[in-house]
Amino acid sequence: MSLIGAIRGDSVQIERRTRVQDSTGSWVPGPKVLIDVAGATVMSLYGVTVGSSSEADGAENTVITRRVLNAPVGTDVRPDDVIIHRGRRYAVKGEELEFPLTSLAHIEVQVEEVTG
Question: Which domain holds residue 101?
Fold first, then answer.
């Protein structure tokens, strides 16, 4: 299968925390919602298999893995969203970058997984 076929045939979920008003009228965190996005995937940076990882120094066992969310144009991704792909959870890092004028129109968003 081609890379394009693999991307278009995959899917992710966007986990988003809603906000609700409490009894005093203040906005507080509400329940989380899951939004299914077909034709999207989380892939290594630059489309190559090596990707980007780093480990924290000291006695910690923290590994930070950087990836890119590739999704259809019009996908609503927000800086405080969590992307779920194949059981892994990625925090959104920054704003989306849109590529609308190519034959493979899509958006890209930097995401990061922190483990350990």
Answer: 3-115
For residue 10, the domain's CATH number is 2.40.10
Q: Is the pLDDT of residue 1 over 80?
A: no
- In the chain, DSSP finds a helix count (H) and a strand count (E) of 1, 9
Beta bridge partners of 46: none
Domain count, the chain: 1
Give this prediction's pTM: 0.81
d(CA 36, CA 11): 7
